[in-house]
């Protein structure tokens, strides 16, 4: 290339530029800018002039874009804006060797603009296109500088207070440089810088680091005295002015106010308190700081305050201030927010802290709970689960009442609505606690793995129950003012369903018990506690709405389960106490609800007869039909044995197959076989009595016994009888039973006899006349089988064990029927007569006196009249059995007068007297 | 015409125009057959201060803040135009030196720097020649000169790196300027004994090498062409860049860390012997591939040797290289040798040191043989004698000590 021609063209550029600049207007700006950029590249020496021109362009552009309305914001409209958009990328891409010129130029231009436009809000200024381009350029070029030059540039910016926003903006690229420098400024200027710097998360970290550094520097032992004197007041002052600093300071307060930090700070404070710079450091400043700080800090402060009185007062002041502040609901107090965020820590502190801490935190929590119902709920839930002593429970009471009554004058109209709302929260809290306690019980715990389970380890649910019980006790004592409205009681009543469910869960035998969890512990103590909770709650519906059907069902089922679990308790005292609780519960539930009674009775009887029969000494009603407990040889099987009898087995309904061969599935009946046990299971056992007590407690109240006994009778029939046929009251002809229903009768007799519970229940029914009538099918079955058996045994096995059983059964039948007034006066003495009779005589008596009488006088409730006291009975004077039914007896006595004579007067003399 | 009248006339014009007018007036004042009187000089200086550089306020006479960069640019344009239009070298240099000859004004020095840099950009020969004269008159190693040179280097070797061809052509159009420029540049680099050794940037080295290599007489040009100075002024002796360049070439092997150079060496470096070099002086003139710094220094060394040969003067005393200047190499080499000894390395086995000593020997031999050295030669030889052992050096010292 010919250098001469090149040089002329270059000077032409130069001339054009100089000429253009001297006649500068907005039209030629793009043209000039182009030339300027060219010059910059080819005539580096002209950079000062070109940059000065560019600065003018920027000033113009800022003016234009400030005056411009939104709609005409078209870059092409104005030359200076267009130029700016050309200059920006060019200056950004010049490279590191240019940066030392561009960066200071940018910064002084920013400062110029900021100073000139100081009457315009920063935000508007920042949003203009030229300023944004300029800031971008600055940032870009700053990054290209080496650290010394960069620091110099930033110092240059920090010197001007008008462009602190720009420092903040540009500082985002270099927060590590800006932050410590800004701290060296006076508080006002630093505030402005930080306010802009903090919009950038990365920068915030540096601000925080710088603050922490400064603080640590200040409390370092060896730092210079006069320097250290200033720092803390300065920080407090800055914090009170700048939200960002406050936030940064408080976010790192864990670092600053660590244990050693506190100690050293205290010593510094002590030595410096009287210097003039510390005048502003009153409690107010610190409280303002603390109010924004996290609650963990408060924890530190609190725990520290134990030793230091002055902080204690500080603390009080803080709480008062907080309570005052939260009167304004729209205010957002960071301390409370953070307390809400870290509520788990706070709550833990409630349990472990010292007294002051506990009460202060309780006050904080009240404030938090008032604003955040969810925190209220979880606080209740937490304390109910983890409180282990009265103090913490007292705090809970305090929090509950405090939250409810806060800011609500007693005469406010919406007090009801509000307390209702809070009551709901409490209920939710109670339910959550229950749920969480149950969940915690199924979690694997370290102490199990390490095999260090304390002896008296209780399940979480147990603790929960103990807490509830204690609260309920306080409530019922009526001595705790805060609990006068029964918040806990009402909450528990409202969550009966869940508590019932929990009891059911824990009382069930099939409960899953994962290894190494609380659930693997013995569940009975928990059950007792749960039952006690239920016991302490009012279910009558007098103080609160009555529980729903669903709830009743749940609780009844749970109670029945619990009852049977209690029967298995080894410790007699526990057992009795548990049973009593269950009875009380049943009584409470059944007294108001027939439904509950029906359910309870059925559940109790069913369980006692079919699932828990062993506890009552009963044998299973249904012989082993499902599994065979041993392998049978072919020739032992009844089916084969029966085939040996030839034609006999072919007869349907014939008794021979049963009478002589045994029981299906058990092979041939063994004489006095050990597995049959001897005789009938006794009625009078503890468990039986307890069950009866439970049954009776279901029938409490007005006419409850008769109704209850009636349903017991019906239930017994239902449970014992294999089908619904022939379950009616009437007794058919004796022959009929022989021909048609003897198998059924046998089955029923066996079932009844083997089941002590059923027999005992029958007796109770008999006592509650006329309930026994409804169990007439059972009586009939016994009577029929007795007739048959005695007839079959006539003279054959008069002294055998079988005979003894039959006689015992007879005695029981007679006793029951007599008790139920089904056998009126002379007949009722068959009971005393029976032991002296032979089998033949018994058959006769049974047929003529018992069966026939009952057949002709159908045992029905209609026979019984209700007297004024509501008692049902059969007047003996009006229901004398006709002679047809008594003659057999009379004849037998007369025949064996020597032996049975003593009964004759009792049975017949009065009778005769009357007839005469 | 009195001063007040002059000023009165000039005050009718605004800034750019008044400067132009002022230059014409100054020319009338200063250039003539006889040297101007002191009064005339004072008037010229006043006018320059007020109307050219605007250093004095027109009304109050107080010093002002000066002119803005844009005005500077206008002023520079005017000065350029004036200098280019000047047909007489003496007139041009007279005006130029009176504009910028003052030692004290930093502001004027800045404007001069810009002017010089722009002249380099625009390859404006008249201006460059004037700057060359200025450099020579101020002394190439004076602080003002160094400042000017530094500015030019920054503008043309750091900020604008795309103008190498233009720069290379300067050697032909303005050799006096280039020669003085190189002399000043050699003062800037590789000069401090302690601390970091400041090395010239590679592109600067490239350009200087190409200048010296392509034109062996370049180094002597400032001396050969005497500057056209205003009458009555004292011409300053031009110092050739040769001594400085010998410095560079000799010390380069010591200071350049060859491992750190990222450019891969494609061709094995062939050490050029003096005999060969004499037979094929233009062996590597057309080198298009980029050379490493070490190679560049080698090339530069060759070019310097050529220049020394061209520096032989047929009449008059030698002027090319100052013996004292050459002797200044001693401390650098000894410091390096001392470091080697500290690390326990034998001096004879260190290739870099030997390379350095070889180059010193070659340069000294060529310079002495061509009668380029002035000053105390025996001192030089004594200084060389204290350097570490080197066979070539030993031979040279012996030879020349005998001749003296």
TrEMBL record, chain A:
InterPro entries: INTS5 (IPR040316), INTS5_C (IPR029444), INTS5_N (IPR029445). It holds the Pfam family INTS5_N. Residues 193-900 form the Integrator complex subunit 5 C-terminal domain. Residues 9-170 form the Integrator complex subunit 5 N-terminal domain. This is Integrator complex subunit 5 C-terminal domain-containing protein. It comes from Chilo suppressalis.
TrEMBL record, chain B:
This is Uncharacterized protein. InterPro entries: INTS15. It comes from Chilo suppressalis (Asiatic rice borer moth). It comes from the Eukaryota.
């Amino acid at each position: 290339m010919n250098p001469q021609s090149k040089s002329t063209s270059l000077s032409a550029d130069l001339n054009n530029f100089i000429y253009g600049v001297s006649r500068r207007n907005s039209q030629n700006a793009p043209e000039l800018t182009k030339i300027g950029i060219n010059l910059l590249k080819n005539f580096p020496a002209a950079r000062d002039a070109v940059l000065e021109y560019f600065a003018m362009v920027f000033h113009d552009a800022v003016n234009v874009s400030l005056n411009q309305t939104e709609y005409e914001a078209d870059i092409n409209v104005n030359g200076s804006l267009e130029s700016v958009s050309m200059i920006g990328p060019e200056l950004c891409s010049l490279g590191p060797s240019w940066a030392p010129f561009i960066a200071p130029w940018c910064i002084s231009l920013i400062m110029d603009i900021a100073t000139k436009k100081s009457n315009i809000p920063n935000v508007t200024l920042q949003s203009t296109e030229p300023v944004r381009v300029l800031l971008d350029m600055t940032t870009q070029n700053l990054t290209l500088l080496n650290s010394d030059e960069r620091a110099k540039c930033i110092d240059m910016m920090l010197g001007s207070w008008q462009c602190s926003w720009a420092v903040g903006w540009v500082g985002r690229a270099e927060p590590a440089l800006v932050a410590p420098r800004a701290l060296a400024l006076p508080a006002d200027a630093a505030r402005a810088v930080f306010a802009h710097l903090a919009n950038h998360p990365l920068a915030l970290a540096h601000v925080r680091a710088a603050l922490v550094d400064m603080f640590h520097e200040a409390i370092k032992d060896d730092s210079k005295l006069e320097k250290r004197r200033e720092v803390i007041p300065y920080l407090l002052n800055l914090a009170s002015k700048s939200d960002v600093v406050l936030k940064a300071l408080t976010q790192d307060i864990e670092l600053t106010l660590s244990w050693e930090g506190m100690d050293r700070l205290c010593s510094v404070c002590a030595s410096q308190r009287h210097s003039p710079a510390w005048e502003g450091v009153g409690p107010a400043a610190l409280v303002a700081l603390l109010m924004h700080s996290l609650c963990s800090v408060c924890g530190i402060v609190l725990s520290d305050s134990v030793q230091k009185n002055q902080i204690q007062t500080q603390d009080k002041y803080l709480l008062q201030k907080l309570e005052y502040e939260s009167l304004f609901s729209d205010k957002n107090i960071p301390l409370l927010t953070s307390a809400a965020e870290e509520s788990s820590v706070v709550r833990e502190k409630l349990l472990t802290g010292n007294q002051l801490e506990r009460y202060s935190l309780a006050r904080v929590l009240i404030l938090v709970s008032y604003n955040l119902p969810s925190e209220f709920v979880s606080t209740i839930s937490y304390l109910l689960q983890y409180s282990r002593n009265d103090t913490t429970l007292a705090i809970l009471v305090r929090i509950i009442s405090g939250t409810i009554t806060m800011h609500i004058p007693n005469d406010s109209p919406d007090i009801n609505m509000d307390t209702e709302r809070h009551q709901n929260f409490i209920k939710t809290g109670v339910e959550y606690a229950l749920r969480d306690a149950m969940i915690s019980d199924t979690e694997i715990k370290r102490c199990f793995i390490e095999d260090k389970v304390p002896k008296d380890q209780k399940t979480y649910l147990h603790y929960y129950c103990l807490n509830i019980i204690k609260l309920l006790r306080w409530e019922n004592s009526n001595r705790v003012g805060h609990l006068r409205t029964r918040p806990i009681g009402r909450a528990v009543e409202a969550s009966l369903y869940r508590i019932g469910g929990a009891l059911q869960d824990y009382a069930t035998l099939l409960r899953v018990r994962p290894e190494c969890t609380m659930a693997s512990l013995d569940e009975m103590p928990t059950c007792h506690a749960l039952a006690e909770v239920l016991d302490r709650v009012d279910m009558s519906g007098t103080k609160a709405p009555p529980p729903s059907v669903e709830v009743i069902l749940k609780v009844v089922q749970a109670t029945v389960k619990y009852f049977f679990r209690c029967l298995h308790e080894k410790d007699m005292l526990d057992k009795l106490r548990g049973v009593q609780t269950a009875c009380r519960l049943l009584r409470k539930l059944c007294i108001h609800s027939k439904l509950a009674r029906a359910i309870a009775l059925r559940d109790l009887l069913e369980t006692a007869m079919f699932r828990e029969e062993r506890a009552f000494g009963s044998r299973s009603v249904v012989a082993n039909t499902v599994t065979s407990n041993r392998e049978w040889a072919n020739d032992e099987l009844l089916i084969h044995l029966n085939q040996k009898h030839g034609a006999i087995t072919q007869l349907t309904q014939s008794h021979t197959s049963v009478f002589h061969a045994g029981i299906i599935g058990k092979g041939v009946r063994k004489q006095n076989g050990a597995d049959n046990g001897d005789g009938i299971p006794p009625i009078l056992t503890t468990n039986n009595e307890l069950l009866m007590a439970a049954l009776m407690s279901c029938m409490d109240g007005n006419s409850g016994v008769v109704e209850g006994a009636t349903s017991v009778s019906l239930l017994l029939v239902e449970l014992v009888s294999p089908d619904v046929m022939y379950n009616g009251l009437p007794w058919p002809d004796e022959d009929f039973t022989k021909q048609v229903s003897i198998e059924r009768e046998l089955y029923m007799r066996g079932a009844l006899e083997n089941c002590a519970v059923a027999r005992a229940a029958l007796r109770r029914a008999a006592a509650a006349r006329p309930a026994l009538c409804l169990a007439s099918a059972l009586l009939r079955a016994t009577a029929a089988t007795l007739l048959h058996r005695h007839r079959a045994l006539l003279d054959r096995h008069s002294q055998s064990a079988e005979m003894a059983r039959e006689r015992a059964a007879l005695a029981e039948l007679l006793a029951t029927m007599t008790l139920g007034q089904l056998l009126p006066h002379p007949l009722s003495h068959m009971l005393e007569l029976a032991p002296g009779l032979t089998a033949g005589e018994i058959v006769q008596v049974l047929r003529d006196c018992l069966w026939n009488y009952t057949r002709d006088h159908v045992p029905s409730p209609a026979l019984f009249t209700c007297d004024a006291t509501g008692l049902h009975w059969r007047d003996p004077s009006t229901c004398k059995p006709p002679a047809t039914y008594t003659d057999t007896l009379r004849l037998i006595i007369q025949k064996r007068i020597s032996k049975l004579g003593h009964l004759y007067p009792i049975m017949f003399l009065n009778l005769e007297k009357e007839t005469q | 015409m009195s001063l007040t009248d002059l000023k009165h006339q000039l005050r009718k014009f605004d800034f750019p125009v008044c400067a132009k007018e002022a230059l014409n007036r100054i020319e009338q004042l200063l250039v003539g057959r006889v040297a101007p009187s002191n009064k005339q000089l004072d008037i010229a200086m006043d006018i320059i201060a007020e109307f050219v550089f605007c250093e004095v306020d027109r009304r109050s006479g107080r010093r002002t803040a000066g002119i803005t960069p844009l005005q500077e640019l206008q002023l520079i344009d005017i000065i350029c135009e004036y200098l280019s239009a000047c047909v007489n070298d003496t007139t041009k240099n007279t005006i130029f030196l009176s504009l910028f000859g003052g030692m004290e004004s930093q502001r004027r020095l800045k404007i001069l720097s810009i002017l010089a840099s722009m002249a380099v950009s625009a390859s404006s020969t008249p201006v460059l020649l004037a700057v060359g004269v200025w450099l020579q008159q101020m002394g190439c190693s004076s602080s003002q000169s160094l400042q000017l040179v530094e500015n030019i280097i920054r503008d043309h070797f750091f900020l604008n790196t795309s103008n190498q061809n233009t720069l290379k052509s300067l050697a032909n159009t303005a050799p006096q300027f280039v020669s003085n420029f190189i002399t000043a540049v050699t003062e800037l680099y590789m000069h401090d004994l302690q601390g970091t050794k400041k090395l010239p940037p590679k592109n600067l080295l490239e350009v200087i090498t190409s200048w010296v290599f392509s034109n062996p007489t370049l180094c002597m040009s400032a001396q050969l062409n005497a500057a056209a100075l205003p009458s009555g002024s004292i011409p300053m002796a031009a110092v050739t860049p040769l001594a400085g360049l010998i410095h560079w070439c000799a010390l380069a092997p010591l200071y350049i860390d060859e491992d750190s150079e990222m450019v891969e060496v494609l061709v094995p470096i062939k050490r050029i012997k003096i005999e060969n070099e004499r037979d094929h002086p233009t062996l590597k003139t057309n080198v298009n591939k980029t050379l490493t710094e070490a190679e560049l220094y080698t090339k530069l060394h060759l070019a310097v040797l050529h220049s020394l040969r061209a520096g032989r003067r047929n009449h008059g005393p030698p002027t090319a290289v100052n013996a004292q200047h050459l002797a200044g190499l001693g401390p650098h080499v000894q410091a390096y040798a001392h470091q080697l000894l500290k690390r326990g390395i034998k001096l004879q086995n260190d290739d870099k040191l030997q390379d350095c000593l070889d180059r010193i020997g070659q340069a000294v031999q060529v310079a002495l043989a061509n009668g380029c050295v002035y000053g105390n030669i025996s001192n030089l030889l004594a200084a060389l004698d204290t350097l570490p052992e080197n066979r070539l050096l030993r031979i040279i010292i012996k030879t020349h000590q005998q001749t003296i």
